[in-house]
Amino acid sequence: MSGAMALTETPVPARAGDTPEAALGRLRRLLDVCVALNSTRDIDELLATLVQTTTVVLRCEAASILLYDDRDAALRFIAASGDGADALRDVVVPLDGSLAGTIFREDRPLLAADLAADPRHFAEAAEATGVRPEVLLGVPMRADGAPIGVLEAINPTDGTFDDADAETLLVIAAQAAVALRNAWQRDALAAANARLEETDRARVRFLAVASHELRTPLATVRGYAEVLADEAPPALRPFADEVLAAGRRMTEIVETVEEMIATDERSEAGSVRVTDLFAAARAVAGRALTLDLTDARLAVRADPARLRLAVSHLVRNAVAFTPPDGTVTLSARAAGADVALCVCDTGRGIAPEHLERIFEPFYQVDATESRAHEGLGVGLSVVRSIVMRAGGRIWATSGGDGRGTTLHLRLPRADAGPATDGRRPMSLPRPLPVVSAPDWTAPAVGVLAA
């Protein structure tokens, strides 16, 4: 500090005979400043606390804070003690030819013991507040290593400022700069979050209206397609079937979008037979599926429409990344109060670092290859949402590149009875070994041909 103070216009006198008790009291006051600044979140309250505390700690008549305004390339008063604080907000202090500007530009403390004789004294500030400054001690406020403003103390009540006061003011300025930066960042983050929330609300409104408006024409297309499929001559039947399949696919897309924006936490609980789920999977697979089922009477407790949508996504995803000579196996077995479902494929597999992220919306392990397949890129995230709403769990395992992937589901059995609150806890499964096939074996019952 002594080297920095040697550069000031007025030498800063040393404090003589400072007792240990006085030094300890000064440190306690600095600690109080730190606590006050870090416990205050509102910027206006923070500034008021800062100037008030400065006048108390430095035993001076007034204190003020000026921050750099890059629009005017000048300093502006943003806080001051006394009744004239509001009047100072309109005062702009130039960087050149002013004491505050010198402190900011040269990034150093400055003591002016005789303001009346200093031509850099900015008299307009005194005129705005009615305070007659005689002595000024100012220090730069730094944030991230660069000055952002100036903290000033005016007119000490015991005659003059000394080096201990200068050291104290530097500490207060450093704490204040950090507190202000944090407050600005909090406000900026809150504003950004508010904009994001409004954008998300607009997105949800648009998707809700669009999906609703699409349902009526889709129902018309599918209805006429079914009539044409029944009445068309043999030569035209394949075309009618294509229209009908496209209509079903578009309906599934609309249902997926509605599931994406659904806000209800619970599903309409019902009983869904596993054999019905496998039949729905067969309808969308477009190829032969291997069925591994230990008990044809198994049923799960979930929203039937949503669960069929989830299984359709799982099967469609497995088929998309499995070569024609590979296999896709659907497995089901009783597991205590759960039904354990598995969709296992012999496709390209997934690296361990991607296993958790595949359930994120729009996440693609290989964007180039993934975009060769149709879809919104949200299928697995929608599946996870449906499963969790039903009180179940879902996770993926894979042996890695070329070794296939298995999607594991645990859903409450329809005959197991609900939990006391109507839902099962949504706990995550314990880590499982990385495998490419179901972790249990059962005799194959048959093959579902496409």
Major β-sheet annotation = 6 strands, antiparallel
Widest sheet: strand order?
3-2-1-6-5-4
Fraction in beta strands: 15-25%
**Count of domains:** 2
Structural class: alpha+beta
For the residues shown, what is the average pLDDT? 78
CATH architecture of the largest domain: 2-Layer Sandwich
Low-pLDDT parts are 1-8, 418-450
Q: What is the tally of helical segments?
A: 12
Q: By CATH's scheme, which homologous superfamily of the largest domain applies?
A: GAF domain
End-to-end distance, in Å? 84 Å
What is the CATH top level name of the largest domain? Alpha Beta
- Strand segment count: 14
* CATH fold-level topology of the largest domain: Beta-Lactamase
Radius of gyration: 36 Å
Q: What general outline do the C-alpha atoms trace?
A: elongated
- Can you write the helix and strand succession as a string? HHHEEHEHEHEEHHEHEEHEEHHEEE
Task: Give a brief outline of the structure.
The chain has 450 residues and is an alpha+beta fold. Helices cover 43% and strands 20% of the residues.
